[in-house]
């Protein structure tokens, strides 16, 4: 089992939700973690909370995955501070849900640019660093990346794209010793789509569950690669 102490990670959209849960789990293993948010204030506030875990080291960086230069800067900050990049988690995402009649052009582009193009920008920006470390790239897709639903045209398109892109990228970069996994969660207890996590969310996947999954992937012998992982609640309502 690989010792993760002092390994270096960058997590996009890490100020809350799934990204925050992954950051917490990695820090508990002694990793050094950078989280990004489009808000510097949010990134620094989350980093301050995560620092209380007592292991590892954490920083917050303002970055927008929709802008390649912004994402490249985030990668540069990490490498300049800690000297390498062992793990990049492309987690940042949003959701606009409406019929094709009602969804706006702005909502469409924001969804695709964040959820899909943002994943491409992330691996593109981090590729040289990951080559040097023979590192790991993990994208957070969704069960909506293989299952379509009404009012999900933009979100489905983005997540179907992430799933396909990640699997193709896996084949492209494995010659460099880089591993690529896409994690596809179902219902997670997060703030996604303006939801407020509450006591009724106990049946859902918890952010620490996905954090543990990333730790397990990092610790797995590099000869083995779970390239696509579907994750769903064991017992959803009505099951």
Explain what the structure shows.
The chain is of the alpha/beta class. It has six helices and seven strands. Strands 3-2-1-4-5-6-7 form a seven-stranded parallel beta sheet, with helices on both faces. Strand 4, helix 4 and strand 5 form a beta-alpha-beta unit. The mean pLDDT is 95.
Total of DSSP H or I helical runs spanning 4+ residues: 6
CATH domain class: Alpha Beta
Spatial extent as radius of gyration: 17 Å
Please tell me the CATH architecture by its name: 3-Layer(aba) Sandwich
List how many beta strands DSSP finds.
7
Mean pLDDT over the residues: 95
Widest sheet, order of strands: 3-2-1-4-5-6-7
Separation of the first and last Cα atoms: 36 Å
Q: Which superfamily, in CATH terms, is the homologous superfamily?
A: NAD(P)-binding Rossmann-like Domain
Main beta sheet, described? 7 strands, parallel
Residue runs with pLDDT of under 50 for 5 or more positions: none
CATH topology: Rossmann fold
Task: Look at the helices and sheets and give the structural class.
Answer: alpha/beta
* Portion in strands: 15-25%
Whole-number total of structural domains: 1
What's the helical proportion of residues?
A: 40-55%
Tertiary shape:
globular
> Can you write the helix and strand succession as a string?
EHEHEHEHEHEHE
What order do the helices and strands come in, and which of them pair?
Elements (H helix, E strand, L loop, with lengths): L7 E4 L5 H12 L3 E6 L2 H11 L6 E6 L5 H15 L4 E4 L14 H29 L2 E5 L12 H21 L5 E7 L21 H13 L8 E4 L8
Parallel strand pairs: 1-2, 1-4, 2-3, 4-5, 5-6, 6-7
């Amino acid at each position: 089992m690989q010792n993760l102490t002092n390994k270096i990670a960058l997590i996009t959209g890490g100020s809350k939700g799934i990204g925050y849960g992954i950051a917490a789990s990695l820090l508990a293993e002694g990793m050094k973690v950078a989280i990004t948010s489009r808000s510097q204030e949010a990134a620094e506030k989350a980093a301050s909370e995560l620092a209380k875990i007592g292991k590892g080291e954490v920083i917050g960086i303002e970055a927008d995955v929709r802008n390649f230069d912004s994402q490249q800067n985030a990668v540069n900050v990490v490498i300049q501070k800690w000297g390498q990049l062992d793990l990049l988690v492309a987690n940042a995402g949003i959701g606009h849900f409406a019929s094709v009649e009602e969804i706006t052009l702005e909502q469409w582009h924001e969804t695709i640019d964040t959820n899909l193009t943002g994943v491409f920008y992330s691996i593109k920006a981090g590729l040289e660093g990951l080559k040097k470390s023979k590192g790991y790239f993990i994208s957070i897709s969704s069960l909506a990346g293989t299952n379509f639903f009404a009012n999900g045209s933009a979100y489905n398109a983005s997540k179907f794209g992430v799933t396909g892109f990640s699997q193709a990228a896996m084949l492209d970069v494995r010659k460099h010793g880089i591993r690529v996994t896409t994690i596809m969660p179902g219902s997670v207890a997060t703030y996604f789509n303006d939801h407020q996590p509450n006591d009724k969310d106990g049946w859902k996947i918890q952010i620490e569950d996905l954090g543990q999954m990333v730790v397990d992937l990092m610790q797995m012998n590099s000869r083995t690669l779970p390239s696509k992982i579907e994750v769903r609640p064991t017992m959803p309502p009505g099951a």
